[in-house]
Amino acid sequence: MRESSAVGDALVQFADRLSAGDVDSFDRLVSSDPATCIVGTAPGEVVTERAALRFGFETEGVRLEIDSPRAYEEGSVGWALTAGTLFFPDGSGIPVRLSAVLHQQEDRWKLVHAHFSVGVPDEEVVTLTKSWSS
């Protein structure tokens, strides 16, 4: 495996085009493979349906600002890790960590998996998860 600026650039482009609401770029940036999925920060939030994956690009006010990703590739598979802020239509935002897997398709890197998480101190996780399930 080796560091990959191309994979990192593809993830930055994903965040940029999502933030711009550039729906026309969705198919160029996100794989159409049925295995493609995004795991969000909400409990149980696993998005696999193509229309639902496109939702962020279509929703005015959703933005993703990320730091420069650490990115790597091996053959046709790439992965990246970064941090940033996910903004919602009401203007509020949350700090997120993002790990992503990309696959080289049609001579470009396309997102096949993304996992957003929010850093929560270990000592608070038990209390929080109990409140979510009640």
Structure at a glance:
The protein has 134 residues and is of the alpha+beta class.
The poorly predicted ranges are none
Q: How much beta, percentage-wise?
A: 35-45%
The pLDDT mean sits at: 94
* Alpha-carbon distance between the two ends: 44 Å
**Number of helical regions:** 4
Question: How would the global form be characterised?
Answer: globular
The gyration radius over C-alpha positions equals: 15 Å
Q: Outline the biggest β-sheet.
A: 8 strands, mixed
Give the helix proportion (percent range): 25-40%
Q: How many runs of DSSP E, i.e. beta strands?
A: 8
Output the structural class. Answer: alpha+beta
Secondary-structure element order, as H and E?
EHHEEHEEEEEH
Describe the structure.
- By secondary structure, this protein is α+β, with helices and mostly antiparallel strands.
- Helices cover 30% and strands 37% of the residues.
- It contains four helices and eight strands.
- Strands 1, 2, 3, 4, 5, 6, 7 and 8 form an eight-stranded mixed β-sheet that branches.
- A hairpin with a 5-residue loop joins strand 6 (77-87) and strand 7.
- The chain is globular and about 45 Å long.
- The model has no long low-confidence stretch (mean pLDDT 94).
